[in-house]
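Input.
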Amino acid sequence: MRSKSVLCPTNRRVRILVGLLLAGLFFVQCTRTVALKESDVVTVVDGRVIGENSPDTTRRIDHLARTDHIKLLSYALENARGRYRDYTCTFIKQERIGGRLGDPEHIEVRFLAEPFSVAMQWMENPPLADRMIYVEGKYDGQMLVRPTGLLGGIVGTVARDPEGDEARRNTLRPVTLFGFVNALENLLDVYEKARDAGDLREEFGGYAEIDGRETVKLIRYLPPEDDYPAYRTDVYLDLEYLVPICIEGRNWDNELTSRYVYTDLRFNVGLTPDDFLPRTLGMEPPK
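Output.
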């Protein structure tokens, strides 16, 4: 009889086991939450910020912004690689192409780090296409786009080379270089090249607010060399997320050449490869 009672637990035993399981899960969650809150840098879970940057982190950011942009951007790059697996945002892009400064494009974006995936839907001033998906390793390396206007209704979704001539006529940076990690790596490449050549001049630009977000402003000046992208580059590093939420470039005639702004950022929202299928953007599968 005793053996039978063990194999067939009573309702009371079931309730006790379930209670212990829930208590254990609660303890693990509480421990994890406390650990996240005690992190030196904020953690973002399901789009929500947990914890805050420590006073030591805040002092370090201020010190490096005044003395060593390369170390600060390297610190930001390490943080972005380790903490952000996906995000959604509104991306505002304005570029000078062929000597003409275009109108600001407002784009709703989804981004996934692994596999590298980008989905874009233009809300204002679309170029030749109003929707685009790029997933590394899919569609034979092509991006899927839906042309604007009547043409889109006729041809539907088409595949295009993300780094081809057509793409480069409409953007300075291909979609394969999108994202905060790529942006920070690109900034660091130029900073380090200029430093090694003795060409780098950097300034602390103080603190500024971008779309309600507090940032520290880094200013970089470079000589008029063909290999340098801009005379002046202003980088606005978000003080909480430690990512560049605004980057502005000016040429040697002091004309705006590019401006990239990220607003409505929500990190680690749980995007999956299914969020980068054509149907998720209202696009027909390619023919």
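The first helix runs from residue 2 to 7.
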